[in-house]
Amino acid sequence: MSYKAKFKVWRGEGGEGKLEDFTVEVNEGEVVLDIIHRLQATQAPDLAVRWNCKAGKCGSCSMEINGKPRLGCMTRMSTFEEDETITVTPMRTFPVIKDLVTDVSFNYQKAREIPSFTPPQGVRPGEYRMQQVDVERSQEFRKCIECFMCNNICHVIRDHEENKPAFAGPRFLMRIAELDMHPYDVADRQESAQEEHGLGYCNITKCCTEVCPEHIKITDNALIPMKERVVDRKYDPLVWLGNKIFRRPK
Amino acid sequence: MSQTTSDAPVRRQRAQIKVRTLRTDRWWLAPLLTFLGLSAFLVYGVWAIFDTPYYVPGAEYIAPFSSPCLATSCPEGARLFGLAPFGDWYTLPPGLLILGLPGGFRLTCYYYRKSYYRSFWLSPPACAVQEPHGKYTGETRLPLIMQNIHRYFFYAAIVIGAILSYDAILALVHKPLGLGSWILLLNAVLIAAYTLSCHSCRHITAGRLNHFSRHPVRYRAWTFVSKLNAKHQPLAWASMFSVMGADFYVRLVAKGIIAFPYA
Amino acid sequence: MEIERHEYDVVVIGAGGAGLRAAIEARQQGKRTAIVCKSLFGKAHTVMAEGGAAAAMGNVNSDDNWMVHFRDTMRGGKFLNNWRMAELHAKEAPDRVWELEAWGALFDRTKDGKISQRNFGGHEYPRLAHVGDRTGLELIRTLQQRVVALQQEDYEQHGDYEAYIKVFAECTVTRLLKDGDRISGAFGYWRESGSFVVLDAPAVVLATGGIGKSYVVTSNSWEYTGDGHALALLAGADLINMEFIQFHPTGMVWPPSVRGILVTESVRGDGGVLRNSAGERFMFNYIPEVFKDKYATTEEEADRWYTDQANNRRPPELLPRDEVARAINAEVKAGRGSPQGGVFLDVSTRLPAEEIRRRLPSMHHQFKELADVDITAEPMQVGPTCHYIMGGVEVDADTGAAAVPGLFAAGEVSGGMHGSNRLGGNSLSDLLVFGRRAGAGAAAYVDALPARPKIGQEQLDEAREEALAPLQRTGENPYEVHHELQRTMNELVGIIRKAEEVAEALEVVEKLKERVRLVGAAGSRIYNPGWHLALDLRNMILVSECVARAALLREESRGGHTRDDFPGMNPEWRRKLLVCSTADGSSITVEEKVQPAMRDDLITLFDRDELKKYLTDEEMSEFDGISK
Fold first, then answer.
1. For this UniProt entry, which segments traverse the membrane (chain A) (predicted)?
2. CB contact under 8 A, A142 and C141
3. N-to-C CA span, chain A
């Protein structure tokens, strides 16, 4: 059941490089990452690729396969035709270190800029009481394996490097939503989501949701609800007036 | 000697790939179809505004694009509750008075925004396809920051949706066996479903709360709206075609082009 | 050439659960802490843990308490555990789990809003705090975010996120450095650039996980090359219990490329059953004598247990992992296996599809995406996979200190806590409990230190030379050597072991040592996986030799060590630990050591009848003396 597949793999250090052609054996049941590993073991021992769990749980092997961001370990070879040339490139939005490995430090920097979980004063560990329905929304976002493919595909920074300082990307806007919906979080996140983390840059074109390997509904369940919460705070005169008059506690 | 150490200046750059996309599938198909679909709707809408007649007396059909009819220029039976608050100074087509509301609702709708940003503005045309613009600020400044008023259009859309339902029921009462009555009803249902599946509606029911468990009724409403919301895109298209179809059908009946007994 | 140098109080090697918890503790005690990890921050193997963290919180069954948990742990480890560790673990696990919640973790909830707990193999009560079947991810993310929170605090105070805690991601440590007999730092290289880095620190916490990459079929990722085990050996510390390797009974067997990837035990905890090719629920035939009265003997009783645990005994599918793994192995050997060489694990006929998707989302996802199997409609095929090593660095239970001053270890790389076999769910809690203790231990050690140990230039030169060597050779491809090692260990020192086979494996290992000295890595130093593997081989060979030598010596079958030629447990061997060390950095010597007797108040937690199965007559008479 094995056959020879044609691959084009981007190789290079720093930004410079090119697509190199390979012909490589493919066996039944294999995924793209297996083929990259076979290239390492047989033809290009120094071909760089980042990977860990090989089960779609760690989010390390993000790459672009035929132009689409994918996890190498979760892309079955059987989804391609045998005579198809498969192009594998590094994530486009981040600087390349070597071959398929990119410098994803942008994401770690953004993670740091989001204020951490802030529980109310005086609740001791062990005293937390939360209902399942109250944690489910945030739990969905915590399925995130941080493959950073949503940040990679988001055109706000993919096509506009200059927006990077102002925009946290879907991953971390979702993190804000996760904390804002956390039943015990007391930090004020709505104002800063818009002003500091660039929620307004999102034009909800949903590519983040399309590429999410965990099938998290990033746009519908995190970004849009967050935008609506921001509207409550910043753009809705009635809510603003209501809060002024009734001083509703959050 | 070629530099390959960690501080070589070439590092910290993206992979230099010159093509806009390496996608091999027909990524342009979806935005193209969306473009055609939305364009057809716009063209039809402009035509419908200026088209008369739009009312079928007796059967009490009124074309959705012209309802509610609020001016004296409307045929008497077509007026909502017989009212004509705009009096006789208003001589433009009655549709212009109200179409801004459902139009605005759709224009600021989170799904339609996605679809026209992609298909009209190409920002981006499809995922992982480079957009043609040099600059991008999204919805951070005027005019696009106005998208945030979506919820007000939602309130208005509820009213319009209710009027369309009222129209359909009125037609059903007057002509229960009329095909038009049922078409209007189907349209009213789809419009209602689309309106209720709106993201703002989801937020208002309970999305804005952090403790669902303390608001069981609102939580149940949210659960229901969330289910509808997952189908917001198909409902957007279905209701768009149904409103066009129902509108066109009523006009054809009004013009006598369709004239069989159960029309 | 100038080498990048940093000064820290505590260096933690490994950024999995144990490493992060240790680093958090060290930083909370005011120590400048470095975390060094081979992967990106947050990718550690802990994310693979699915079932949950065992902690006797008693949220679901209020009869649960630390003593029950302690008993379960000792029983699971066949009484070979370091009992002090088992005690600390059972007592402290609830606090460690609650603490996570205060750092933002969102566990699944009970009806009254507490942390929900699930059943798991070997645990008497529902005990595992969990989030669906992705508990490990929740744990690593929470700890990662806690580290970030501390960095944010430091930023507020000092204007620098990394003032007190810095992550060296994609950085591999190849040598521990010493000043006399004390630890003085660590030497490593950046995977990204290949340039070297020296961390000058009086205390090093090893938290590098396990050794699974010495086997072909394993649930472990490439990182699991036994680095910490080897670093400790080379620094002069001892390893214990290295013969005990846990083969998880249910790994995927197909497709070949994912062979070994884990199928969580929760599948069985939630009702999944094991069947052979004849459709028989074969686990009923494999209930060992010591567990006879704790497990159901009929399918009817086993099925009733899922809904009424008070009045029924648990199904034999939930026996400890070693028992289930051996049973599956036996069924396959007897020709009753599934088409692809495993057995069937079926949940599709046991639960409604919707329920399966809700309770086992990532398993559903994993099978759908990797094997194109819909587990709500058809059974999975599963077989044993190398999963966890019980053995590791011998440490002091209370502080995590190894024999070398300044060296600490926590998590999988440390040994003793789990005895001869680890219970599912005990590793996540182990990470938290002993990660914290090792971090605190290291901090206290640094406080008590009169002067900072120094790093000698000679050691640095040696380490550098050793690291560069493979790049300067044009020898054999390291992948070949690695494959041969994996095959050897898998076939000859696998689940079932025989003296001749293990001896043969040792011969192969000797030959591989020679070949490792000759492997070459083509290419530059920038992100060169061939070079990285060539360096990791040293560690894998050292550790494999420990496993094989200890396996050859221990002439009994216990937990994660099964000798075909010595079936059954031998109470004499229960008291003995096998201690591995190396004098010359390449050959391993193993010595026997007597395990200290359990403290009186702990041993009396057990029934006499139960102890009788494990202890020698001499020990029993001592027990009778105490319990009177």
1. none
2. yes
3. 61
Claim to verify: residue A92 and residue A119 sit in the same structural domain? no
- Residues ≥6 apart with Cβ < 8 Å to C590: C546, C549, C550, C553, C578, C579, C580
The pLDDT of residue C259: 87
Catalytically annotated residue among C268, C326, C387, C525:
C268
State which residues form the domain around A89.
Answer: 3-102
Closest residue to B114, CB basis, from A200, A201, A206: A206
Q: What gap in Å lies between CA C430 and CA C196, rounded to an integer?
A: 32
Q: How is chain B split into domains, by residue range?
A: 29-130+150-254
Q: Which of C89, C175, C248, C532 is catalytic?
A: C248
State whether residue A204 sits within 8 Å of chain B by CB: yes
A135 and A70 assigned to the same domain: no
B25 interfacial to chain A (CB closer than 8 Å): yes
* C37, C97, C108, C109: best to mutate for the A interface, most A CBs within 10 A: C109
What residue spans of chain A are helical by DSSP H? 32-42, 105-113, 132-141, 149-153, 155-158, 169-180, 190-195, 207-211, 224-230, 237-246
Residues A150 and A113 in one domain: yes
Residue with token string 């990077």: A164
* Final residue of a structural domain among A57, A87, A102: A102
Cα–Cα distance measured from residue B23 to residue B37, given in angstroms and rounded to the nearest whole number: 24
Q: Do B5 and C190 touch (CB under 8 A)?
A: no
**Is the model's pLDDT at B2 over the cut of 80?**
no
Give A-chain residues touching C102 at CB under 8 angstroms: 119, 123-125, 128
> What length is written for chain A?
250
Q: Look at A67 and B22 and tell me if their CB atoms are within 8 Å.
A: yes
Q: Would the CB atoms of C145 and A116 count as touching at under 8 Å?
A: yes
Yes or no: say if C401 and C395 are a contact pair by the CB < 8 Å rule.
yes
Tell me the pLDDT band of B180, cut-offs 50, 70 and 90. Answer: very high
The yes-or-no answer on residue C268 being catalytic is yes
Are A143 and C526 an interchain contact pair (Cβ–Cβ within 8 Å)?
A: no
Model ipTM over 0.90? yes
B187 pLDDT more than 70: yes
| Domain termination site, one of A52, A71, A102 | A102
CATH of the domain at A26: 3.10.20.30
| pLDDT tens figures, C371-391 | 888 999 999 999 999 999 999
C248 is catalytic: yes
Considering its fold, how many domains does chain A have in total? Answer: 2
Residues of A in contact with B149 (CB under 8 A): 235
pLDDT for res B8: 42
Determine contact: B17 vs chain A, CB below 8 A: yes
pTM over 0.90, yes/no: yes
* C616 pLDDT above the threshold of 50: yes
Same domain, A30 and A118: no
A98 in contact with B, Cβ within 8 Å: no
C-alpha–C-alpha distance, residues C277 and C293, integer Å: 28
- What domains does chain C contain, in order, with CATH numbers? 4-245+388-437 (3.50.50.60), 246-387 (3.90.700.10)
Tokens read off for A153: 């595909």
pLDDT tens-digit series, residues C422-481: 999 999 999 999 999 999 999 999 999 999 999 999 999 999 999 999 999 888 989 999
Nearest to C256 among A29, A50, A123 (CB): A29
User: Torsions phi, psi of B99, nearest 5?
Assistant: -65, -20
